[in-house]
Amino acid sequence: MSIKSTMMDYPLTLSTLVERLKTYYPRVEVVSRLPDKTLHRTHYLDIHKRTKRLASALTKRGVKKGEGVATLMWNHYGHLEAYLGVPIMGGVLHTVNLRLSPKDIAYIINHAGDKVLIIDDILLPLYEQFKDDVALDEVIVVPLTGEKVNSEYTDYEDYLKLGDDDFSYPIIDENDAAGMCYTSGTTGRPKGVVYSHRSTVLHAMAEAMVDTLGVSQSDVVTPVVPMFHANAWGLSYTSVLVGAKQALPGPHLDAESLMDLYQSEQVTLSAGVPTIWMAIKTAREAEPNRWKTAPNMRMVVGGAAVPESLFRAFDKFDMTIIQAWGMTETGPLATVGIVKESLSDLDEDAKYACRIKQGLTLPFIDIRIVDEEGVELPWDGKTSGNAELKGPWVTAAYHKNEGAEDSFSEDGWLKTGDVCQIDQEGYVKLTDRTKDLVKSGGEWISSVDLENAIMGHPDVLEAAVIAVAHPKWDERPLAVVVVKEDKQITTDDIRQFLDGKFTKMWLPDAVEVIAEIPKTSTGKFMKMALREQYKNWVWE
Ligand code: AMP
């Protein structure tokens, strides 16, 4: 007779995290910066109470298990309450990226089938731009400015009063949906990634491990990465799991506001894209004695490659950068760039060379690199291949099964669209990207959508948009165009032509007119050749 496990089948659901807040961390603070820059202070006992009231109110108002509740919010206490309150009542927290165009926002709200939207009062002007294109039952407004909420909407504070303190948790399977995020498709529309309770809990536990981000109850955590982008890299849930204080920046993401927050709250762990840290570096260098941050503050930097100069500069400020790589589809954390103990005798330059790699995969994240035919390539630190991932917080599909043919291998690995090398120590190093997108300040721009629009210009014959490195935004779009005979075109012409069709940050910063766009044997634009040609491009 085979021996069977005698362990309990205990579900990994978010209600356990919520209850721990009350039991173990009631007095731990959650600080949020409001639109007027003042600090709102509360603590986990109150967050616990309000979270349960929100869950209860949503239930009473008819939100059913598996239904999406959209949020359009900055990082603050209200968003944290939605992060917890929606999934514990069985709803699916759909964090909407407020930097998308109103057209795309309406598309994804409709695609997810959301019936309720929770929105910051300061974002109502954005809602006004797409409200006629969505069919929401209720719009709940968080009064961050303290101003009275217009009566056509529901005031969030009134909504919480509808809820009961003794909300009892419904039975939720750990594989039930807890949250969803849309990610840019290379072509066509954004695609939805749906996280489960189990994937969210496991991701939080993995992120808390000492050899990953080591988030602990003694940390003060500031996710600068928005709660609407890949779940603020999971840091909200991880902070709740371990009972870490959170200092949330609200809409104020400029260097000065962040440094003020780091100082006033003595933040020990923050996270964001390189653009944020470039700005902080400039501010610190300009006024070296202005701020006093917590000793050996850690900053998780990811979303784009982190230049070595940034590591070196922050080491001088006693702020340690930890690089992380991942994507919306992977929870998002897949690797963390720590230097293994067995490599601790490397000299200083070699250590930097190690830290600028994307790092080691987290436990339970499997990685392989493959060639175009899907044949696995060696981990020799020299061979580049397409990175594919598997793991308990890696998506196995997109919402409504869209995009499956391009995104998953036949044997079920996620194709990341990133090209990397892996060395014998297991360090992953990104060398290129196959996905045809531009990542600017942490947000995606679809080059294909821009090309199609530019080719609609009457004087343009062909257009290719490529990502070119930019000192502030990591990458910006450069449009390379071929004009019709006897025609001329300038950057301003193209920008004016695109104005109104895309959000401002999507518009190409420069337009280069060339005689012919290099093409493959099948007539496709050879973007790699163009990227190579313009790799030393200097932005004016
Ligand atoms: P997102 O889904 O918006 O979080 O974007 C994920 C993508 O960002 C990845 O597939 C990479 O192309 C890029 N990315 C994330 N982290 C890094 C990193 N540390 N270095 C380079 N690129 C990164």
TrEMBL record:
SUPFAM superfamilies: Acetyl-CoA synthetase-like
Ranges for domain AMP-binding enzyme C-terminal: 450-524
CDD domains in the cross-refs: ttLC_FACS_AlkK_like
BP GO annotations: fatty acid metabolic process
Alphabetical keyword list: Fatty acid metabolism, Ligase, Lipid metabolism
Highest rank taxon of the organism: Bacteria
Sample GO molecular function, one term: ligase activity
Ligase in keyword set: yes
Keyword Membrane annotated: no
Protein name, UniProt field: Acyl-CoA synthetases (AMP-forming)/AMP-acid ligases II
Organism of provenance: Cycloclasticus zancles 78-ME
Taxonomic placement: Bacteria, Pseudomonadati, Pseudomonadota, Gammaproteobacteria, Thiotrichales
